[in-house]
Amino acid sequence: MKKTINALIPLLLLFSPSMNTRAQERKLLCQLVENHAYSELTNDRKNPYDNGYSEQRYDYVLDTFIDEFSPDTGNQLNIQRDWTDGAVNAWAWRIGQEYWLEVPGGMSRYHLISEEGFISTLCHELGHLLGGSPHSHEISYEGQADYYGHMKCLERIFKRLNLDRSDSSELSCAGEFCQARLEGAKSLSSYYASLENSPFPSLITPDQSQVTTTLRSHPKAQCRFDTMVAAMKCPNRNPFSYLEPHSGSCQEEVSQRPKCWYSF
Questions:
Q1: Which residues, listed in sequence order, are joined to residue 81 by a DSSP beta bridge?
Q2: Do the Cβ atoms of 84 and 152 come closer than 8 Å?
Q3: pLDDT at position 170, please?
Q4: Residue 153 phi/psi, 5° resolution?
């Protein structure tokens, strides 16, 4: 039986996400957790916290996401949502056999987050719950959640949403929706880069660093982008294992987990 876990992503066990958090409490929380952005909901299209994404589309995407991936969790997937919550962040946790995501409306409205980036966020958070090894108490590490999201999740949800995207000439990937998945990687990792005050990640500037111990916390933005790109090149659609790190993954250099966060 899976252990009962209250996990905050990106910082595990900081607080219980099931608590009834008011806007001011969430604003303080976002200041504590890696300075993730927060803003009140406005109608100002010049506001960087309002990219024009609609509440109706937000709800539709979340409903479709639950419908697509709930069977993967034994029909125990739930999403706690609040369109008016301006937190530019998302969380994942598990309570017994229940799988939970919390997705504030602010995550879909931030100017650096395209729809593909928003959906990539959902897949990343689901990756914490279904991403396999490396993990701690069956909560997958940050890099592994990125790897899962762009390998096992995005194709499925993009197909369900009927996103009409042409294949990308920039990148050859395994499977469908190459352009949409690449756009999601660019959008989400650019947001991460903005938090770091670092240049936006690029296909021509891969992270050359090598860790000696696998990172449990967030890799740098370029490293995360590299992980998403590597995942896109892996054709393996089998589930990841919590016991065997290589199960469900790819071992070729272009599609394996990058060394900037994973120690082989």
A1: 103
A2: no
A3: 79
A4: -115, -50
